[in-house]
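Hi support team,

I submitted a single chain yesterday and got back a structure, but I'm not sure I'm reading the C-alpha cell output correctly. Could someone confirm the output below corresponds to the sequence I sent? I've pasted both exactly as they appear in my results page.

Thanks,
R.
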Amino acid sequence: MSKIIIIGAGAMGSAFAIPCLENKNDVTVVGTHLEDDLIKNIKSNNNFHPALSLELPAKLKVEEFNKLNSILESRVDIIVVGVSSVGIKWFVDQIAKNYKKSTSIILLTKGLAIEENELITLSDKIKILLKKKGHDEVNVSAIKGPCLAAGLANKMRTGTVIANPDIKEAELLKKIISTDYYSTEISDDLTGIELSGAIKNIYSMLIGASEGLSNSLASKEIQSKYYLNTSASLIHRSISEMVEFVSHYGGRAETVYGLAGLGDLYVSAIGGRNSMMGKYLGEGYLYKDAKEKFMKNITVEGAQLALEIGQKILQDLNPKHFPLMFSMLNTICENKKLEITW
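Hi R., thanks for writing in. Yes, this is the structure output for that exact sequence:
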C-alpha cells in the first residue's frame, strides 16, 4: 500500500483519487489555500463533491490546506499535482521543505511554460524550481490522455498513459494506480506526452470553431447540421501540425498518435471548455468579448496556454508549417477575429 497525497481538490484531482483508493492505497486530497470553503463543503456533506456531482468514497481523506505541512512531514510515497498550470510554482513552494528524492511526483496538470526564453514542459519546470531549493534528484512522471473527470469519477472505462524517462518507474506507478476501469499504458517519452497533452487544448478550440468556419454564407441552422466535413478536415490538419510541433521540441512523433495526443484531442474537441470557446470564436466573436460575455469565470486551458507560450511560438516556428496554430495564437494573443487560410 502506498501513501498518496493529492494537492488540489478540483474535479480531476478528486476523481483521480478514486482509482488510487480502490487499489488499496492510503489516499488524502488536500485543498489549496483557495479551496478551504470547498473542502469544508465536501466534508460537511458526506464527501459530496459539487463539481463531480457525486459522493467521494467515505475512506477518502479530504483535508484543508493548513494540514498540508504536517501531512508532508510524515512518510509520503507519491505526491500528485492537481493544481492548475499557473499554480506550479506555488505547488513547488509547498512541497520543497519536505520533499525527499524517494518520493514520486505525478503530474496531472496539462500545460507548458517559458523559462529564460525557452519553452519547457511542466515536469521540467518542477525540476528546475526544486533544484533552486536544493533538490538535485527529482522524480516526476506525467499522466495524460482522454480523461474527463466526471467520467473517471463515475468509473467509466478510461485509458491514460503514464510517462517517465525511467520506464521501470512508469511500470511501478501503473501497478499502484490501475483498476479494471482505469487502465494505463506506459511510455518513456515524457517530453512528447506533455507536449501533446498541452497543445491539444489549442487545437481543440480550433476544431470547436468548425461550425462557424464551415460556410460563412450558410445559415446557422445549415452550419449546425452539416459542419462535420469541416471538422474532420481540421482534425486531420491539427494532428499533422501536432506531430511537427512535438518533434520540433524534442518529443517523438508516434506519441501524438496515442492517448495523450489523438485520444485527448478527440475528447476535448467533442465537448468541453476549449471547444466551447472555439464555437464562439468560429461565430465571429473576439476572444476577450467571448470570455467576458459567455465564459467569464470559466478556465479555458487552451486560451491560457496560448497566452503563456504564444509569443515564443510565434517567434520560434515557421508560420507556413503551422497555419492553424498561428491562426489561433493570433486570435487569442492579439484578440483578432479567427480566420483560417484554407
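A quick pointer for reading it: The radius of gyration is 20 Å. Let us know if anything else looks off.

Best,
Support desk
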